[in-house]
Amino acid sequence: MIYAASPTENVYIFLLSRALTPSTTLAKKGWRLGLELLHHTDASLPSRAQTQLIKITCPDPSSLSEEGSSASHSRARLDHTISLAQQVVNARTLSLVGAAPLRARISSAAQRYRTDSFRLLRLLRGAPNSDLKGNLKVRRLQHEEECENPEPEPYDALSYNWGPQEGHKFIEIIESSNVYPMPIGPNLDAALRQFRSEHEEVFLWVDALCIDQSNLKEKGVQIPLMRYIYNHAQCVRVWLGGEADGSSHAMDFVEGCLDLSDFDKRIVNVVESPHWAALSALIRRPWFTRRWIIQEVGLAKEAVVHCGDKHIEWRKFASVITMLARAQPQLRKLFRESAGFKNHPDYLGDLSELGAIRLADLTDNLFRRMSDRTITGRHFTLEALMSSLGAFEASEPKDVLYAILWLANDAHPVAKSADTVIEQSLTVPLEDTPTLSPVAMSFPEDATFQATFPLRTDSDPKSDAGADDLRPPDSTQRARALSEQSRKTQFEMTVTAPMSELDRVAQSTVGGSVIDAKATLRRSSQSHDEPQSQKLPVLPQIVTAMTQQTSPNRPRRLSVRSAKDDKERKQAAGDHLRRRLPKIKKGRIVVDYGKEILEVYKDFLELAISQSKSIDILCMPWAPTDQTLPSWIPQMNRNAFGLTSSGVYRRVNADPLVKRPGHLGRAPKPYDAARGRPANWMIPKDGRSIFVEGMVLDKIKQREKPAWDGIIPDQWMQAVGWDDQKHSPPERFWRTLVGNIDSAGNAAPIHWEIACKYAFAQRAHGGSIRTSDLLLDCPSTVSEFLERVQCVVWSRRLAKLEHLGEESLCLAPGKAKKGDFICILYGCSVPVVLRPYINGIAAAKRISCQHAECPTRQTSQSAERTKVHYEFIGECYVHGMMGGEAFNEKRNRTDYKIFDVR
């Protein structure tokens, strides 16, 4: 039993153990043990009220006889049980009893968050080893002038990795006269101690403390405000963790590398290899894999990196690690000469894939900024961001999308709260463009929360009673007049439409049966959330009022930033919103943590395909690996690089063919297999299908072994008839190996034919070609060729097609099989491999028997023929068919289909 006490309350927590085999005797012993514990409790209480965990001296249950022998005759400490109980209490129970001040306040006084306010932690001063103490204060957004909550004090925002939560760490949250011990993880505990001052209070925004993470409704409203919170913080404090693995030396090393002349010496000096290894370990810390850090650092006006007692400005840190990535060729040579690292040239792995490198490259390019770091615009589409941020993970799968919504220039997030979708207010917190933030929220009146109890009620001069009241004043007074049984949330709301109506707008799809190629699919010119049969609900009343104030004949176009007074500012903002309204409708995504994960991903794909008029996103991995998702949701197990057990990135797959190498934005696609035809598609609201229009180009007739680990099997040369390597390679072969383009997406240079011949001549006894081994020592031209080969063939297999003839060559996914279809889908820049299924069975595996009693027998009247769907296997390269050449030939009408892909 664990006991905790205060002057007014006693809390008892029992850990009960059930026998593996039910037994009346054991049950009786258990009950006697419980009664004995209660009987001896009074003698074990502390002399004065304190919050503490106490081991109770209790009898060993095995010593109790069936006749009920007295426990006092045989006592033993149940250390193991008590230890287990302590772990349970610290890790779980205290989050419900005496350790959840947010829930306590919500349940005790019916207080609710509104979307014009947020919490701040006031971290009280203290000695380094003293207990952490603080208050949670409610402050309004600075642009919400009508909100009654006070403006926020100057504050810093914390960016950190949650890490393991066990460790029995707490912060005492003081509210009025109550003290709530709130459990926190060891990493957050270390960060708060690092940033706490011994002399003054510090205001911080910390997600784990300032948002009730267990409340999905609150998360749905507060997470959209994070962009504002980080953008308006004085500084974003990046906490990498405590000193470990030479991190202090690594932080000093970064400072030294800012001297460029010194940097050039360091990348060739073998003595410096331990420092490079330490820096590599530092930028592999878990913080750099968090998806939320892109927003947290990207929106920061100023950011500082902290590791232990060391710190450095983020811009300086980012400059050094980007130079590190560009120096990888020199560092490979350096480690090849380093005996202390086993002369391993690839000891650091592929640095360009590290989250730290991606973050450093990305954060300064996400936005258009003024000289004072004010954000004036966003550079990248949501599709470009989703398809390029595979190095960043999220513990919540929905955050793969939600963590980056506010960074995209074509997405307009809408907050959802309770049964209402919250529309956007006309606010300009980040740029001179109306951006989307919620204006009101509602919780259902019958919402219930776990009751909690303070463990201590010591009066504290820092308590500031009532300072963190989350309700409007009038509802606060009304709530106090209610009894505990009838106390409910009451305050005014500003909403635009019931959830059901907006959900139909945000998630609607064009209906209709898919019958043939003329069936009604969604054309790319139509917005995913703008069906012709429905109209978008109007924006909040504040928007209407602003629009009405706009004069249609004004002599000049105002901007929010140049407006002289409130009237002009409202006029300019309303006018700007009216011009942007079609785009806002088109990019709306409702942030709803209550949705199923597939529905969230559908929201993204509908937006991406509608905006780009392309379905190339189906070929670029972005979703967390989940076997329950349909095949057309591209998962991260298809990513080009994977993280090894040693924490380094190594290539595991080829690069996506649909993306121009080295480009993040909407760069011209390297291929155009569909010859510019826009996507014709539909994602039904219910079900697991996407319907896409296209044609069957061919079928796989013969396949060779895949190029696992970049090793090209010797069977590939035999398949193309290149038996004598003294002759030049067949042109179609070497061009297929590189996808017929170079590393910049331009046409493959003719001299790569010579490089190919040289590389294959290095094979031992005419065996397979190991591209990674050859890259260690080869001429620069050959190295350039082989690096491109790896990008294209890694884990893909060479295949020949049935109808295009013996000269046809195809690079297909490793899982492709004989009989799979090679298809060209409208809106997809490369051919794809689809596997047909008939009645749920792969078509290639079905045996069609015409015996009258055979269940596989098919006739012209068989309804089973119509039950066909396809599995999306992946993209492929078909030599001579990457530029729309398939449309030059006359084809049968049966080649054109609407594919039901699942």
From TrEMBL:
Residues 457-472, 562-575 have a biased composition (Basic and acidic residues). Residues 155-296 form the Heterokaryon incompatibility domain. Residues 454-491, 546-575 are annotated as: Disordered. This is Heterokaryon incompatibility domain-containing protein.
